[in-house]
Description:
Blueprint lengths: L6 H22 L1 H6 L6 H29 L4 E5 L10 E5 L5 H10 L6 E3 L1 E2 L8 H7 L4 E2 L5 H17 L6 E4 L8 H7 L12 H10 L5 E8 L7 H6 L4 E9 L14 H33 L2
Parallel strand pairs: 1-8, 2-6, 2-7, 3-6, 4-5
Antiparallel strand pairs: 7-8
Helix pairs in contact: 1-3, 6-8
Amino acid sequence: MLARLPAALRGGLTGLTLGLNTVVVFSCMIPPALLKLLFKSGAVRSAIDHALTTLASRWVAINNAWIVAVRPDARWDVAGVDSLRLRGWYLVSSNHQSWVDILVLQRIFHGHIPFLKFFLKAELIWVPVIGLAWWALDFPFMQRGRSRGARGNDLKTTREACEKFKRIPTSVINFVEGTRFTAAKHAQQASPYHHLLKPKIGGLGIALATMGEQFEALLDVTIVYPHGTPRFWDLLCGRIDAVTVRVQQRPIPPEVLGGDPLGDKAYRQRIGAWVEQQWLDKDRLIDDLLAAELPRAHG
């Protein structure tokens, strides 16, 4: 029924649904979030963390429901999630084109791996309601500073967050490009890749250094929008008719574990070489996925 409404009305209704879902679910997180200030460890803390993660998963499930309702005929071509474990530990790396990516990732991984936790800019902690929820869920907040001291604080913050992730099964996601892909950013960087910006390894490096041995695998995610990069409003209005996602499990090599990503240049180079190979593979995969879409588009 929702799909039959005019696009603007669909967008308004789904936007309202998203807003209400966010306010209600994240407001329910406030009491357990405040309890976290009193209980730093132990069984009570574990129960609090479990309650917060359950609420966050409910938020994702409701979002998934309206995404389907607003465009039930959309083609979601997803491969690589069936063998994943809900009670595992994963490091997730994805290309980044739009804010839509976040809801796409949450939809495809829901019920397959633990709730995704993102690296966020420090300013986002002040977002009403949501900022407190992100803090309660132990999302790592980073300053994005350019100086060595600022980078050291970023790594310290990320290390502390990753240490917390050891208590319960967790999926840590990092958009290695550091920002959304645009043609202007691509040209400014003189990126050697056709579809990607140059990778940055700061947050990824400290995650590997802190708890890399606990991760079962790196989940290398490639997201393609066959008909062009959508805006978030396009998702709300049900204008996205096709999404292609490929998830590849990659073993994490021992040489990128346990080092010092700030002080050890050789360690950074090893991580950089590992990620650059992934980026070369991902760039070719995007070419292949887009090429496979051409016959469908002209069929």
